[in-house]
Model the fold of this input.
Amino acid sequence: MKWVGLIAVIFTGGLLLSAMDDFPNWGDAHSPANASPVSQYYIEKTIEDSGVPNMVTAVLADYRGYDTMFETVVVLIAGIAIMAILRVMNGVPGGARPSPAHEIGDQHDIIIGTTCRLLIPVLQLFALYVIAHGHHSPGGGFQGGVILGASFILTAIAKGLDPALERLPEKRYVKLAFVGVVIYSGFGVACLLLGENFLDYGVLQVLLPTIDAAEARSHSMLGVEVGVAFTVSAIMFAIYANLASKGELEGGL
Amino acid sequence: MAEQYPIIVLLVLLFGALFVGLAGMADRRVCFPLTMTALVLAVMVSVGILQRVISGGVIRYFVGGWSRPVGIGIELRIDTINALVLLTITTVGLLTALFSFRRVQEDKTEKTPLFYVLYLLLIMGLSGMVITGDAFNLYVLLEVSSLTSYALIAMGKSRRAAVAAFSYIIMGTIGASFYLLGVGYLYLRTGTLNMMEIHQAILALDGPSSTIVVAFVLILVGLMIKMAFFPLFGWLPNAYSYCPSSTSCVVAPLMTKVGVYVMVRMMLTVFGTEWVFENLQYTQWMVGIAVLAILAGSVMALAQVELKKMFCYLIVAEVGYMVGGAWMANHWGMVGTIYHIMGDAFMTLCMFLAAGIFVKQAGVVRIDQLDGMFRKMPWTMAGFVVGALAMIGIPPTCGFFSKLYLIRGGMESGHWGYVMALLISSLVNAVLFFRIFEIAYFGKKPAEGHGHHVDHSEESVIKEARPSALIPLLATAVIIVLLGLFNSNLVELIERSLQGSEVIGTRALSSKGGLG
Amino acid sequence: MSEITSQYLIDHFNFWVAVVLMMIGLYAMITKNNLIKKLIGMSIFQTAIILFYVSAGVKEGATIPILEHHVAETEQVEAGEHAEGHSTTKASSSHEVHAINPDDYSNPLPHVLMLTAIVVGVATLGVALAVSQVIYKNYGTLEEDEILAKIKAAENDG
Amino acid sequence: MIWQFDIIILIFLVITAVISLRVKDLLAASMVFGTYSFLICLLWAGMGAVDVAFTEATVGAGISAVILIATVYNTRRDSSD
Done:
C-alpha cells in the first residue's frame, strides 16, 4: 500500500507541477482569472447593483446565491447524515451507556464555569454582529452561524452536554436547521412567484414600496444570511452533540 | 411558469425534503406520501422540460437573472441529452421510492424521516448536476449527492456497511477534490466557470496550454473515481452490496451513470470534442483501459457467489462500455454511450430491485439459493428475466440496441479490441444469467447437499412480493422494452444535441466516423 | 541564488507549497493505517486545494475585496460634486468605473468558491468521523489492518 | 502581502502538516491540525482573503479540531502510525 501511495503521489505531484510554468505569476493582476470580465464586473458593479461594499458577501449571496443555497443544503445534509448514522434512537437498543469516567461534565471546574458564563453571552452577541454586519465587513451567515453554534458547544464542553441540550434540545435544532434552508429557498421562491427568475431579489422591492431594487437586493441578502446562520449554527451543535456522545445525546465529553 | 421548469424540478425535490424533515418529525406517516408527491411532480416537470427542449431547443436559465456578462451568475443549460438523463434520474428515483415503501418503515422506524430527507436530497443533487451549466456548481451538487450517498450507505444494518462507507468517503473525496482542482486549473487559465465560456476561452487560447491539459486529466481522473472506472473501482462492490436494498436500488443505477454523463458533458461542452480528440492522443489509451475494465468486470462477476456483488462487478463492466464508447472519437460511439447511460440505469435498477425482493421475501443472498424461484415468485422472475435479457443484449430490449450502436462505433473507428471485449462480455452475461435461470427454474441438483439449503418447511413460506415492490420492478421491465422499441427516436434526439450549433466538434466526430 | 531563480520562486512558491501540501495529504489518505489520520490527511488535502484557489486570486498591491467606505459614499454623491478630481480621466462610461479600479481589490470570486469548499470540507469531515465512530463501535479499533483482519475472520467463521 | 512573511508561514504549514500526520498520539495530532488551520488562516488573511480566513478560523481551527477531539475522546487516543 505504501508503494502504491507513493507512486500515486509522485505521479500526481509531477502532473500538477508540470503545468506550473504555464501559470500566471503569483499576484499578477492581469492573469486570466484576475482580469476576466466576470471578476471585473463583481468589483465594479457590486455597489451599483446592491450597494453592498463587501463583494464577497454580494457574490456569495446574490450573484452566486444558487451555489450558496446548495452549500447550506450540504451543511444540512451533514447534520442529518450524522444523525442518521450515529444517533441511537430511543427504544432502539444501541451501544453501551457511557461509562461514568466519561462524564466530566458533572465535576466541572469553577474557573471554566465562570469564564464560560462571561464568555458565552459575548460570543453570541458577536455572532449576531458578524451575521448582521457581513455586508460591510468580513463575515456573514456561515461565520456568524459557526460562532453561534460554537457558543452552544462551549456550554456543552464547560457544563456537560445535558445543560446545553436543555437550552437547545434535539427537536428544536433539527427544526431550526430545516427552517434555515426554508428561509433561504423561500426568498428564491418569492422571486419566482413575483414572476422573475429564482433568487432574483430585485423584484422583491414590490413587497416594501419604500425601497429600490438595489436596496431590495441588499436586504434580501441579509435575509438569506440569517437563514444560513440558522442552519449552520443548529447543525454545528448537532454535529458536536452527536459526535461527543456517540449519538446518545447524554453525558458527552 | 414553463420557462421556470429547470429550477422547479430541483425546488420540488428540495421542498419535498424540507417538508418531510419538518412534518415527518411530528408524524412519521406523512413521510412516504410527501416523498412520492415530490417525486411524481419532479417526473412530471422533467417530462415538461423534455417537451420544451424538443420543441424549442436548448433551454438556458439564468439563476438570479444574472445574464449580461455570461458567467457572473449561474446558468442552467438543458439540451436533449440533459433532459433525457434528467428524466431517467427522476424516474429511477420515483420507482425506487415506491419500492422502499414498506422496507424503510420496517427497518428504521425512528430514522424514516431522515432516510427520506437524504433520499430526496440525493435525487436533487443528481438532477442538479445534470442540468447545471456551471463547472463549480457541479462540484457543489456533486458533494450534495456524495454526502447523501455516504450517509445512505452507512445506514446499512450490516457491520461492514460502515467500513464500506468509510472507504467510499475516502475515495469519493479524492475524486471530488481532483475535480475541484481541475476546475481550479481551468479557472486559472480561462477566468470563468461557465461551461460554455470556458469552451470559448479554450478555443481562444493561443497555442497549447499545459494547464488546460492538466485540468482535463485531473477532472477525468476525479470522475473516473466517481464512476468506478477500471483501476479505481475497488470501493464500489462493498459500498453497493452492504447497504440497504432501497439505497442500493437508487445509488447503483444513478451514481456511476451520472459520473459518465458528466464526463461526456466535459468532453462535449467544456473542452470540446475537437480539442479532446485531436489535441490529446489519449483515445487509444482510454479505449484500451475500457477494454480492460470490461474484461475485468466480467471475469470478477463470474467469480462471485453473491447476487448483489455479481451485479456490482457487472456495473464495472458497463462503465467500461460507456467510457470506451465515449472515447472512440466516433459519432456512433458517442450516441451509443449516451443511449446506454439511460438504458443501463434502468437495467441496473431492474437487477437491484430483483435482488432486493429476493433478499426481502426469501432471504436469498447467494446465487445458488435461488432454486425454484420461477415457481415461487413468477412475477418477480418475469421482471428479472427482462432485465437479464437486456444485460445480455437480446432484442427488443434497450441493451441490444446500445450494444449495436457501440459495436458499430467500434467497427467504424477500427477499435476491434473493444468490439471483441463487448462480445465477450455479452457472452459472459449470457453464461451468468442462464446459470441463474437454470438454478431458478430447475432447482438445484439433489446431489448438492452441502451448505445453505433452505428448510423445506420454510420454502413454502416464500411468496410473491408485495405490489409496492412488484410494481416498480415490472414498470422497469416495461421501460427497458420501451427504450428498446423507441431507440431510433431517442437516438434522433441525442443526435440533435450532438449536432446542435453549440456543441462544437461534431464535425470531428462524424468525419472520423467516415474515415473508419 | 540568481535573480531569476529567486523571482521564479516568489512567483510560484505559493503554488509549489500548495502542491506539496496536497501530496502530503493525499499520501496520508492512501497509506495511513489509522482512520483518524486518514481524515486529517483529507482535511490537509482540501485546505491545500483552497490555498491553491486563493493564491490564484491574489493581486500584487491590492487590498481586501471590501470597498472602502469613502468609495461607497461617493456613489451616493452626485457625479458633479467630485468631478474636478477625476475630470482628467473621465471617459464615456459612468463615473464609478473611475472610482473603483479593479486592480486595487483582490479577485472576490475565488474567495466565494472557497467559502463553499471549506464548508463542504467540514461537512465531509463530520460525516466521516461519525462513520469512524460506528466502525469503532462495531470492531473496537480504528486501525485499518485490524479491521480487515476482523472482517476476514468473521467471513471464515460464517 | 509581504512575501517573506508568506514564505515563512508556508514553511511552517508544511512542518505542522507533517507533524500532525506523524505524531502517534491522536489528541496531539488533532491539536497540531488546529495549529495548521490557524496558520493557513493567517496566510489567507495576509493574502487579502479575509472572508475565507474568517471562515477557516471558525470552521477549520474551531469546529474541525473540536469534532476531531470529540471523536478521539470517544474512540482511542493512540495510533499505530
Summary: Residues 4 and 230 of chain A are 44 Å apart (CA to CA). The first helix of chain A runs from residue 2 to 18. Chain A has a mean pLDDT of 86. The two ends of chain A are 35 Å apart (CA to CA).
